[in-house]
Amino acid sequence: xxxxxxxxxxxxxxxxxxxxxxxxxxxxxxxxxxxxxxxxxxxxxxxxxxxxxxxxxxxxxxxxxxxxxxxxxxxxxxxxxxxxxxxxxxxxxxxxxxxxxxxxxxxxxxxxxxxxxxxxxxxxxxxxxxxxxxxxxxxxxxxxxxxxxxxxxxxxxxxxxxxxxxxxxxxxxxxxxxxxxxxxxxxxxxxxxxxxxxxxxxxxxx
Length: 206
Description:
Number of helices: 2
């Protein structure tokens, strides 16, 4: 199947996928990208200020969101971004800070809680190994391969990843050799890699 041949694994969460889950563990990869890159996070707004707001993800990660004159609010007016509201934030990620290009108001949203539970997202705990398991369709991928991308394409990939596997912070989007995408997920114990098709549908994660 070549360098990007597929291995298939079967688990709840991806209809019709075949899965292979192996037990054991590796250290939790919670380290951010080498430099700021485009990504995002989903959560509940905890507080607001003149320069932006803070949110908490479904796994308890605190994210600082900085807004600029170029930040666009989607799904409602800017004043709709207030304490207790669920939002998806897209922009440039530097560790746990996002300089927002777009803030998507998720009316009646739960900050990704239900989706994170369904996907089995594991919150980060210092010193706790990450499980060695995969769900869905996983490419033969080595971290560091591919090209980091930005713009609307990165936003679409992050939006897709956050809809299925929220709870962490997506700190970069990498386009793979076959044209699909790897969305790198930090600040959780699992999963760290979310794979998104050319049609911006999540096909697997590990």
